[in-house]
Amino acid sequence: MAKTGIVTSQTQKLTTKITPQQIQIIKFIETPVAEIDALINKELEENPALDLNNSETDNAEVEVSDDNASDNEEEWKENNNSDEDMEYNYSDDDNDYDYDYDGVGNQRYNGANDVDYMRNISSQPSLRDFLLDQLSTADIPENQYKLCQYVVDNIDENGFLNRSPEQMRDDIAITEGYLVSEMEVNEAVNIVRHLDPVGVASYSLKDCLIFQLEVLKDKDPDNKYIDIAIDIVDKYLSLIESNKYNSLSNNLNASRADIEKAVDIIKSLNAKPGANYAVGVESIARTITPDFQIVDVDGKPKVVLNNSFIPKLRVDSKYTEMLDYLKGSDLDDVKKYVDKANNFIVALKQRNPTLFTIMNAIVDYQYDYFTSGGDDTKLKPMRLRDIAAKTGFDESIISRVNNNKYVDTDWGVIPLKHFFVDGMENAEGVEVSKNEIRYALKQIIDNEDKTNPFTDDELVTLLQKKGFNIARRTVAKYRGILSIPTAKERMML
User: Fold this and answer.
1) pLDDT 10s digits, 170-185
2) Domains along the chain with CATH numbers
3) pTM of the model
């Protein structure tokens, strides 16, 4: 059966509107495991019908009251194939390997307390590196690439621009010695703003949130709650912080229910799109907790989930018992709390099967990398659509799982983004990864005559002899990403 809601079949993309429960599920999926407990604690404080289940020792499994589970639970179980026992059997030519998963919470991460997260600092991508990596594959002129690079250099650790277009224009004239127009700078800013993470290169929180809402609006143009959310952010953002929903309702001539749904959308946005990228050793040590671990089982990679931050939840029986004797508005209030608690638990239960399925697909796709001990030249070209096709999930879900999550391996703690690699066809028509091309470029430069280094044109010729059909401007981009100076500068060194 085709997956629905937040997922699609491989041949048909759904255009259903985003519901509050879907927003909750998406929030769980995109949130790193170390931050899940904060979401759960917040809900425990706000909903008296939701309770911690401390009756058993396994603190990672999630339960729903059998008598009062909402219809949504069965719907999600059926649509997402999230039965209690899940098994994955992947094969890669002569390599057969199995993955198994026994319910939510039973596939445990057993290295969370003794992993040295500092041992692979150099592999953690900074926001700058991640943005430049995307720019390197963009089909833009070299002069525009330089402007985009300058824009990236003026983005702070939270993902916001710290200079106006006019200031950047003046800075370029002073520091680089050439003139550009404010319009050209704005064009470069616009290019960077359309990179991941969504909302990067914004000038303010309002600007950042509205851009993200506009992206959602493009995907769901008929969703009135997104329109309301845009109006709230544009005119009344401060009222959200003080929970003045009645004032919002009056100012926007919208019902309280509509305001709450719009605010839920706003709360699902990323207020600091750059905050989860590496900005230094101290930041990495403080924030990185892997969602996954790769363990070696008989020479084959196996995925283990880190569930150490996910407690066992249940619906408080006192509230389910109230449903039998309360009437009128009291019954409505209690039923609202019980349904909300059930829906919260069901949404949380979608997280692990979704993450587990996607991570297994990544390991399957990049099998040679994981069995080589982390050799980047073994990474195959892999895009969001490849994993979407393999799992049946929509690309947007793959992107959310991919964002801000890490996997612990024997060779370091690696961001999931590292495994998504663009490629190009070589002379034989075979797609090769950009990592392979960059490695070849670095090898050529490392072995060149330092008294007479290769120009970019010569590097193009040498790479073409190796079968890489690459343009001069791409060589220049790759040099920049690898922090390799020009031929003239290398000779001076």
Assistant:
1) 878 765 667 888 899 9
2) 20-58+68-78+280-419 (no CATH), 128-193 (no CATH), 205-267 (no CATH), 423-492 (1.10.10.60)
3) 0.51
